[in-house]
């Protein structure tokens, strides 16, 4: 997938290490909005750190165990999606997303997630897509619901974040439920 249209003027496309400066600028502009939910929003503070982050996903893609994409509107980076986990032997992957405040409510996240879930099931033959979110991340839970995912439970204190062990709500979708 080189790029995929989402709506008029918006597309989903790979984020690559050569885009590190742009990604670092995006994180800086949106840090306050992203930091409550995403650890990398506090650790990426410059182009070098962004390059390491994007480079790790480039390596994961090469090894077929993860991928990262940007969501662009009129050419500007406004969000993204990633397969944090992409375990082909088990047929399980975990999808995560983020978006800038000015792009919220436009359907870009739901459309991008739908596109990536469809790809995971239809093209790659995955059996299960997971979605994990903090219990108080209501916007993320709403997207999971719109995608037809089932809330499966809460993993207690599974995620160390900002010096505190956080709970994560797990949503799941099976290939036979997708259609």
TrEMBL record:
All residue ranges annotated as the N-acetyltransferase domain in the record = 10-176
Question: Which sequence ranges are marked TM in the entry?
Answer: none
* Keyword Transferase belongs to the record: yes
**Which SUPFAM superfamilies would you find in this protein's record?**
Acyl-CoA N-acyltransferases (Nat)
Which cellular component terms (GO) are annotated to the entry? Answer: cytoplasm
Q: Which UniProt keywords apply?
A: Transferase
Pfam families with a match to the protein in the record: Acetyltransf_3
In terms of InterPro entries, this protein maps to: Acyl_CoA_acyltransferase, GNAT_dom, Ribosomal_N-acetyltransferase
Molecular-function annotations in GO = protein N-terminal-serine acetyltransferase activity; protein-N-terminal-alanine acetyltransferase activity
Q: Which domain of life is it from?
A: Bacteria
Q: Please give the PROSITE patterns that the UniProt record associates with this protein.
A: GNAT
> What is the name of the protein in this document?
N-acetyltransferase
